[in-house]
Amino acid sequence: MKHSPERAGKLSETTGLFDKEFKHHKGRYILQCTLAMLCVLAVLTVLNTLSHGIAIASLGASSFIAFAMPYQRSSTARAMIGGYTIGIMTGTVCYLVSMLPEVSSVPYLEANRHEVFGAIAVGMAIFLMVITQSGHPPAAGLALGFVTNGADIHSVIIVEVGIVALYALKTLLKPALMDLT
């Protein structure tokens, strides 16, 4: 299995177009990618999330982490669920602040509120994830999405339920998974 520490940091040793392990584990690669696809399909179907595309797009990136890197730190409950909670909080707070009437009265912010508060949300999310050891890159993207597209309670619930379901499915299937990266 490739969840050993010596597999980490081997990017500089990569040669060729395809992972050399693919040749020996074709079935495992195909199985894990198929499991990821089926789990995402199940989550999206149950949550009926198509109208919340931006809010749930980060779940696609999280499915890569969960199913291609199941033994990495960013695939733990602390990172996946904690990171999303931080992304939701920072994105929602920054969105709400950006909508304040006082913000509209500041000349630069009036025309650039999404850019400014989106950047603040990403920076805050990264900072909070790093200091709480709950780093999950897609959650920083979620914070940005909440600022640029709006944060509402329905989107928050969909995303939080979605990441918990994705993590639960990954945990259930973890004995059959290996790190593919």
Structure notes:
The protein has helices at residues 26-47, 53-68, 77-98, 101-104, 107-131, 137-149, 153-173. By secondary structure, it is mainly alpha-helical. The protein is elongated. The N and C termini lie close together (11 Å).
Helix and strand composition category: mainly alpha
Number of helices: 7
| Main beta sheet | none
Helical fraction equals: 55-70%
Distance between the termini: 11 Å
Measured by DSSP, the beta-strand proportion falls in under 5%
Taking all residues together, what is the mean pLDDT? 87
* Assembly status: single chain
Sequence of secondary-structure elements: HHHHHHH
The whole-angstrom Rg is: 18 Å
The unreliable regions are: none
- Assign an overall shape: elongated
In short, what is this structure?
The chain is mainly α and 181 residues long.
List keywords for this structure.
181 residues; mainly alpha; elongated; 7 helices
Describe the secondary-structure layout.
Blueprint: H1 26-47, H2 53-68, H3 77-98, H4 101-104, H5 107-131, H6 137-149, H7 153-173
Helix pairs in contact: 1-2, 1-7, 2-6, 2-7, 3-5, 3-6, 3-7, 5-6
